[in-house]
Amino acid sequence: MCGIAGFISRDRGASLEPREALLDRMCKVIAYRGPDEQGMVVRGRAALGMRRLSIIDLEGGQQPIYTEDGNLAIVFNGEIYNFRELRRELESLGHRFRSKSDTEVVVHAFEEYGVDCLSKLRGMFAFAIWNFREETLFIARDRVGKKPLFYSQIPNGDFVFGSELKTLLVHGGLTRSIDKSALDAYLTFGYVPEEFCIFEGVRKLPPGHYVVLKNGETSVRQYWDFKFDADEPEQSEEYYVRTLREKLEEAVRVRMISDVPLGAFLSGGVDSSTVVAYMSKLSDTPVKTFSIGFNEDSFDELKYARVAAKHFGTEHHEFVVTPDLVEIIDELVWHFDEPFADSSALPTFMVSKLAREYVTVVLSGDGGDELFGGYTRYTTNESRDVFARLPHGIRTGVLQKLSMSLPHGAPGKNYLYNIGLAGNDRYIDSISHFNGPRRRALYAKGYAEELNGTFGIGEELYRKLADAVGGGSAIDKLLYLDSKTYLPGDILTKVDRMSMANSLEARVPLLDHKLIEFVMTIPSTLKMNGSVSKYILKKAMEGTVPNEILHRSKQGFGVPIGEWIKQQLRARIVSDLRDQRTRERGYFDEKYIDTLLDEHQRNRRDHSHELWMLWMLELWHRRYVDDLTFI
């Protein structure tokens, strides 16, 4: 696992030494992603750099890596699990290798197959390949978005890219002007979706896409997507169970390839227990497992993690998160680069820190909810379908107007608005922290006018994504939507940044693309069977994962921030949100913020997620906008 950075100069005659020094700074700002060594090449117009966390071929995998003739150079972040098979294929075609690393396999595969090499790669990756002779750059990101990649064509003409946004900021040339549509999307969903970046002029390469830069022009293309095959003949339940077991075991097996110690995150849920079950089956020694808990009983999952650890005979390690650990929040803001409001980043950081004391690689159970329909919001949305049968005039003319007429904080106000919507709109509203009406109340009058056509652009994007699923069922549309948005934008971003902050590599077996492509053929009624979520996964794991875990209610990786905001964090959050420089930003109506703070403190309404979101935005501003010498 590594971090990459680089730039392609517009000026072919740019002097070498200043560019080397600049690339060195771009790499060093993400040194935690790869503490073992740094590699760079500055030649012609290209400047490619990387930081390496040594996992495979510890002695011989230094980057950049070149083809035999030196024409192609690659910097690579990720792991390719089928690299040995690919290497044999390429050797049979005449390619010769200097190392035993997966990175060298990728650059030779590109030399042989061009863009089509992406279809052959099994794993997680973000990489850049420069062709010195043709002066073209090829950058690509894995299918699901496990590894990040930012890029920008800056005003001076340079093309700059990196694993994290801060590498681009080190390069300079960016104005750090806030993209209003990205800010509006953040306030809607709690993260900046993949289609946006918080700074104008910067883009994230979407999952399953690549970019070609030639003659100063960029072209972006998609090479993979989640596809529900409505024409696939339906098989028996027994077939799906049997094949799913085979695919799960294979996905775990290929991710246990490592030249360094390896373990697993274990929450005590179905997904992580499934991963640990197969790891235990495939390992000759007890699997090292790591869990996080809280003193607050309603948020503590340690008892279930202990059940799984005992059942599979793991070498288990635990850590209890207490409110005094929130002192690391400023550090988390630094690692995310963009505003990020998922409070479970805190325990993810702590469990990564714990795991790094024992291992360099962990496997996690992320992705199961999006793949198998595990979120309770799916059943909630389905239960409200009955209201969609009401005449449109009743829903919009009665229910929503009634909602809008109720005062702020009135019981049922948000519920009435939600059931007045239909289909995908209702679901998008339900996953919004500040939905449309609440954002209109949140924004200061002047700022709301500045938004113009950017208001609600995030919801519009989500609506188009949900509608893009052709032959899929209603639940398929929601699974697709979350797999394209919440999964890469929140879940995988959180896991990548928090594990890499601790120089820990996290692998995600449930998001193996071959497993995904099989699951896409399973009817949605076997994913959500009545009120039973993840039905087919639970059936597949019967007799392997303890029933106490299989049939427990969904809890999620929550954090007791509601109580923390009322107690240990109260003074700081109130101070920061009411601070003069916060209010001078001009985004929000001051009275609305005061109302949220007051209602939460008096237990009139739980505004913990909204207050946390606003606080994270302010802390991000202070770190990335106000501090002009932050790096």
Please give the structural blueprint:
Elements: E1 2-8, H1 16-28, E2 37-43, E3 46-52, E4 65-66, E5 72-80, H2 83-92, H3 102-113, E6 123-131, E7 136-141, E8 150-153, E9 159-162, H4 165-171, H5 180-189, E10 203-204, E11 209-214, E12 217-222, H6 237-254, E13 262-265, H7 270-282, E14 288-294, H8 302-312, E15 315-321, H9 329-336, H10 345-356, E16 361-363, H11 368-372, H12 376-383, H13 385-388, H14 392-405, H15 413-419, H16 423-430, H17 436-442, H18 445-451, H19 457-467, H20 474-484, H21 486-500, E17 505-507, H22 513-519, H23 535-541, H24 547-550, H25 561-566, H26 570-577, H27 580-583, H28 590-601, H29 608-626
Parallel strand pairs: 13-14, 13-16, 14-15, 16-17
Antiparallel strand pairs: 1-3, 1-9, 2-3, 4-5, 5-6, 6-7, 7-11, 8-9, 8-10, 11-12
Write a brief caption for the model:
The chain is α+β, with helices and mostly antiparallel strands and 631 residues long. Helices cover 44% and strands 15% of the residues. It folds into 3 domains: 2-222, Aminohydrolase, N-terminal nucleophile (Ntn) domain (Glutamine Phosphoribosylpyrophosphate, subunit 1, domain 1, 4-Layer Sandwich); 237-374 and 488-550, Rossmann fold; 560-631, no CATH class.
Radius of gyration: 24 Å
Beta-strand percentage?
A: 5-15%
Number of domains: 3
> What is the CATH superfamily label of the largest domain?
Aminohydrolase, N-terminal nucleophile (Ntn) domain
Name the average pLDDT. 91
Distance between the termini: 23 Å
Major sheet description: 6 strands, antiparallel
Q: What is the CATH-assigned architecture of the largest domain?
A: 4-Layer Sandwich
Question: What shape does the CA trace take?
Answer: globular
β-strand number: 17
Helicity, as a percent range:
40-55%
- Our count of helices gives 29
